[in-house]
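Box 4.2: Ligand-aware structure prediction
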Amino acid sequence: MTDTLTLRTPDDWHLHLRDGDMLRAVAPETARHFARAIIMPNLVPPVVTGADAAAYRDRIMAALPEGTGFTPLMTLYLTENTDPDDLARAYGDGLITAVKLYPAGATTNSASGVADFDKVRPVLERMAEIGCPLCVHGEVVDSDVDIFDREAVFIERVLDPIRRATPGLRVVMEHITTEQGVEYAQAGGDDLGATITTHHLVINRNHILAGGIKPHYYCLPVAKREEHRLALRRAATSGDPTFFLGTDSAPHTDANKLLPCGCAGCFTATNTMSILAHVFEEDGALDKLEAFASVNGPNFYGLPVNEGQMTLTKGDVVVYPDKIDTPDGPVTVFDPGFALHWRVAR
Ligand code: NCD
Ligand code: ZN
């Protein structure tokens, strides 16, 4: 039985760190295990200019204990007013790694997102020219489209037309949740990648809704049917370079989760690596965890893989805190619903 696993230090290709007190409370949870993370720009107000990204990067570094070897990879929030020159300058200077597209109204803090995709065409063309990747929240927001169909409809109505109209644009389908997402990503060639979260490998929609409503399992895109979760598991554990880890760890205080209209997001930064080792072992694919968590992401982004190593060991039950305390109130750590035996040793 394998009970020790060593891999290159992993990265998180989709992370919400927030700001202020929350940032200071949650950033160490990621920096403990991950060397780099793509930092989502959906602050209030969002990170829209190169100057915003530089200031946010400095706040993130200041929030981490001295000597933490963590690199935040910054992103800009694409709006209908994004200045292509500012974007190109920020990318050229190495200040940003990607740009994030939120359809307006799709998820938490997405009010400034894109409603008319024709308006961002010149920016997307510039991004294709300079090689700057576009990270896409792939859900339509039309109220007549069922929430469980919004990803598949987005691929057909928005993503595929954008990619056809903008040859050479590098796109990451963020946090895919469906078989259709897996299939489209797989068929997309070298310019298309997809991130998969920790929680979507573990829960399906029954976990949210059967036997009582579980607000801590509510995130966007919402978890789908079991057959979709299994498609995500096959994709993540296949070693296919298209797929890589983006936890979408998205902290909200319990007070904001447990409301009549509660916030979307699962906070998985703390125990992701233990959960992933469990999942990959269960699928007989521990040897593919390094590809998913540490290799495929940097390869897609054209960045070097990390030189450092992480060792996980399997043993007695590993107990993680149920909650992280923050000055804003407690944040519940994602509960996978099974005992964890893989611990990050170093
Ligand atoms: C994210 C958040 O809280 O910022 N929530 C979520 O459910 N994933 C936004 C997002 O990535 O959609
Ligand atoms: Zn997210």
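In the box above, the bound molecule is N-carbamoyl-L-aspartate. The chain is about 35% helix and 15% strand.
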